[in-house]
Amino acid sequence: MAIDTILLAVGPMDTVRAEELADTVLEIAEPLDAKVVIGHAFTEDEYEDIHDDLGFDARVDDVDPDEVAAKRSPVGDLEEIFADAGVEYEVRGALGEVSSKVVDMAIDVDADRMVVGGRRRSPAEKAVLGSVSQEIILQAPCPVTYFRDLDVME
Length: 154
Prior knowledge:
Blueprint: E1 5-10, H1 18-32, E2 35-42, H2 44-50, H3 65-71, H4 75-85, E3 89-95, H5 98-108, E4 113-118, H6 123-129, H7 132-139, E5 144-148
Parallel strand pairs: 1-2, 1-4, 2-3, 4-5
Helix pairs in contact: 1-4, 5-7
C-alpha cells in the first residue's frame, strides 16, 4: 500500500509539540514524497470563543472552516516546517464534533496514514471526559500513528 497522503490532525493543545509532530510526519512524508494535510477540527463553542481573537466577524453559520483552521495554533508553525522541508501540504478545517470530523476529513482527503497526538489518561478520566484521540483511532479509515506526550493536556 502506497502512502500518498498523510493527515496530521492537530488541536490548540498541540502547539507545544508541533515540532515533534512535524518530525514524526516528515519521517514518513519526505522519503515517500507524500502530501501532508494539516487538519484542525473545532466545535461551534470553540469557534464562538475564539472568533474575535482570530479577526472573524462571521457567526458560526457563515464560517469557512479551512480559513479558521489556517489561523489556529499550531497550523502556522506546521506550515512553515513543511514548507522549509519542501513537502507539499494543505490545510483543512472542520466544524463539529471533533473526532467524527477528523475521521470524515481522513476519508475526504483519502488519507493513507494519520498522525494524531494525545496524552495518557486513566480509565476513569476517559470514562468521564472521553478521549478524542481514542475515538479517532477506533474509527480511522487508515493506519494511525499516535504521538503521546505525557506533559500535554488533552
